[in-house]
Design goal:
48% of the residues lie in helices and 19% in strands. With 277 residues, the protein is of the alpha+beta class. Helix 6 crosses helix 7 and helix 9 crosses helix 10. It is globular, with a radius of gyration of 20 Å.
Length: 277
């Protein structure tokens, strides 16, 4: 289905010290996060990003993410969030090819220059107005504004300097461990192993990992494994036991229990429903 039901825009102001309660994985939708005020720390997949006023974060479907306040700036913040499905972008893909969206989301963090923020804000406000006051033309207008926004991102990514965000020693160590986990989820990784890689004691590492990423160590490891299991359930015909073992779960029954607790349905039902919850 390719209509306004596959699109959503929200504008929310959060109080100081707000952190996302749970990690997010949008299996079937993309997200555009536009920070209007304040400062936020994002942990996306295995990389840390610090967003300031006027920054955008592009979150590809299936990417695990969580946001929290920064230690030096825990003030309130306001943001726009747009979510849309791949089906909603069918007309764009027909014009520019299937790689259109992937190219937009290749570089997640975009720092909108001051002289272009009013233009970007105006596009968000127009989409919000049409979304809240729908008529027979709203879907067409929203698609046009979204199309314009994505083309701006593609153009701006050409000229924006490719910069690696500077992190302090602890944050960098935690990010490196997260990258290691993301690439080695299929093997046994204990808290002690991870702490050793960061050159920290297990207790200190556990506390810092939670502060920096917003995830507990075991929580992050489990979410990475579940994410990979979801892909295999939908993209392969392997048995659930095979998938469980390939994704680092030593027992298929345990995998089934963890999967059902996280998704609300069993791995078998998830595969049967083709990922639709």
């Amino acid at each position: 289905m390719n209509n306004i039901e596959n699109f959503k825009i929200t504008k929310i102001k959060r109080e100081a010290y707000f952190s996302m309660k749970d990690p997010h994985i949008h299996v079937n939708s993309y997200e555009i996060y536009f920070l209007l005020t304040g400062k936020r720390r994002f942990f996306l997949e295995h990389t840390l990003y610090t967003l300031e006023k006027g920054d955008v974060l592009l979150i590809e479907k299936g990417n695990i993410h969580r946001s929290t306040y920064t230690q030096e700036n825990a003030l309130s913040h306001e943001r726009y969030v747009i979510c849309f499905t791949e089906e909603y972008m069918t007309s764009f893909q027909e014009l520019y090819g299937k790689e259109f969206i992937q190219r937009c989301f290749q570089r997640p963090h975009i720092k909108i220059p001051i002289n272009r923020r009013e233009y970007i804000l105006n596009l968000f406000e127009r989409m919000e107005t049409e979304y809240k006051n729908k008529d027979e033309y709203s879907n067409l207008l929203i698609k046009g504004y979204l199309h314009e926004l994505l083309v701006f991102f593609l153009r701006y990514q050409r000229i924006q300097e490719t910069g690696i965000e500077e992190l302090d020693e602890i944050d960098e160590a935690i990010q490196n461990v997260a990258k290691y986990i993301s690439g080695n989820y299929n093997i046994a990784i204990s808290l002690e192993d991870a702490a050793k890689r960061a050159n920290m004691s297990p207790t200190y590492f556990s506390r810092k990992f939670k502060r920096v990423t917003g995830f507990g160590f075991k929580e992050y490891l489990c979410n990475i494994r579940l994410k990979e299991a979801e892909k295999r359930l939908l993209q392969t015909k392997k048995s659930i036991t095979e998938i469980a073992l390939e994704c680092g779960f030593n027992d298929s029954n345990y995998f089934g229990d963890v999967f059902k607790k996280a998704k609300g349905i069993s791995p078998h039902q998830y595969r049967k429903n083709k990922g639709i919850l």
